[in-house]
């Protein structure tokens, strides 16, 4: 059994590499040969996904304001924040599912159509958490609270770029 | 085996892709297209003329062209769609499709047969789920809330 770190040839079934003491137990599990990608998912951090600066709007602003802001910045979502506290997210998906065909996008408040209290990740959270939010919970955009306190956002395309890099 | 190796090898024809993308004709009214996308909870409709793909209408088109414009419900979707759309075939590999979508910045890629008839739809979301299937332990078996810790021992 070859150690993935130092290449030392160990006896089959060894728990740790004889030469460098890297744990080898996971190598005995079928499919664990995906080591490098596994590490990228578990140990890579959200910071590596390079979040974009989020577009921010107050919950009392209109859907039409959000649309203009998203168009102007070529972004698929805005974060809704009241006095700096994140309280919702509004995305293209919400635009399609709730707004398209509405008579009065100028008069509809974001608070009425946003998804309230979205899960927010931190820059030092594992990539796996972002992957989970997108693959299992089905969100295309995830807000990120950066270390400097500002809000960013990552999209499923950023994750795909990271996974295929 | 790296994600790239898996992805590059897998032919799109072998994947369980979105089986029935929303397929409409150019003459289909805008409102009807929106309703079908809503019912199917999908961000994209493939637009055809006589059964052959001529365009695509996505959430991005809603954002950029129709969201605040008061588009009459009966407007034919052919007037609002993006045309011609980027497409690929079932013979392409997943790796090629990913590269195509990344380089051209599209999230939805209709799949067509040799006569340009729609046979499937590849989306970024679908690809993320496909890749997650390769790493179920790392991605799926996570607590829904990060840093979740039980306040008492299990069974206590």
Count of distinct structural domains of chain A: 2
Radius of gyration of chain A: 21 Å
Question: Helix amount of chain A, in percent?
Answer: 25-40%
Specify the number of helices of chain A.
6
The shape of chain B is globular
Largest interface: A-B, 46 and 40 residues
Mean residue pLDDT of chain A: 87
What structural category arises from helix and sheet content of chain B? alpha/beta
Please report the distance between the alpha carbons of the first and last residues of chain A: 28 Å
Strand content of chain B: 15-25%
Q: For the residues shown, what is the average pLDDT of chain B?
A: 84
CATH architectural label of the largest domain in chain A: Roll
Number of strands of chain B: 6
Looking at CATH, the homologous superfamily of chain B is CBS-domain
Strand order of the largest sheet of chain B: 1-2-3
CATH topology name of chain B, in short, is CBS-domain
Query: How many domains make up the 3D coordinates of chain B?
Result: 1
In the CATH hierarchy, the third-tier topology of the largest domain in chain A is known as CBS-domain
Query: Which shape of chain A, going by the Cα principal axes?
Result: elongated
* CATH class label of chain B: Alpha Beta
Terminus-to-terminus distance of chain B: 42 Å
């Amino acid at each position: 059994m070859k150690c993935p770190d130092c290449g030392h040839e160990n006896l089959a079934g060894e728990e740790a590499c004889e030469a460098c003491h890297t744990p080898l137990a996971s190598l005995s599990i079928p499919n664990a040969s995906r080591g490098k990608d596994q590490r990228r998912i578990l140990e890579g951090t959200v910071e590596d996904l390079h979040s974009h600066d989020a577009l921010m709007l107050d919950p009392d602003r209109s859907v039409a304001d959000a649309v203009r802001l998203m168009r102007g910045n070529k972004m698929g979502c805005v974060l809704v924040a009241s006095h700096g506290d994140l309280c919702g997210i509004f995305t293209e998906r919400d635009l399609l599912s709730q707004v398209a065909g509405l008579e009065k996008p100028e008069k509809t408040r974001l608070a009425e159509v946003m998804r309230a209290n979205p899960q927010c990740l931190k820059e030092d959270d594992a990539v796996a958490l972002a992957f989970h939010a997108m693959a299992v919970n089905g969100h295309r955009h995830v807000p990120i609270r950066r270390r400097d306190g500002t809000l960013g956002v990552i999209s499923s395309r950023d994750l795909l770029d990271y996974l295929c890099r | 085996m790296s994600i790239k190796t898996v992805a590059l090898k897998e032919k799109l024809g072998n994947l369980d892709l979105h089986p029935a993308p929303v397929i409409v004709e150019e003459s289909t009214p805008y409102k009807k297209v929106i309703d079908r996308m809503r019912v199917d909870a999908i961000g994209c409709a493939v637009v055809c003329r006589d059964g052959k793909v001529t365009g695509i209408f996505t959430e991005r088109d809603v954002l950029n062209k129709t969201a605040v414009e008061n588009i009459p419900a009966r407007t034919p979707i052919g007037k609002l769609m993006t045309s011609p759309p980027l497409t690929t075939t079932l013979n392409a590999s997943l790796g090629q499709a990913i590269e195509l979508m990344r380089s051209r910045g599209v999230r939805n890629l209709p799949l067509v047969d040799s006569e340009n008839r729609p046979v499937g739809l590849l989306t970024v979301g679908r690809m993320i789920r496909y890749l997650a299937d390769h790493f179920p332990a790392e991605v799926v078996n996570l607590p829904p809330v990060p840093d979740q810790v039980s306040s008492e021992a299990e069974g206590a």
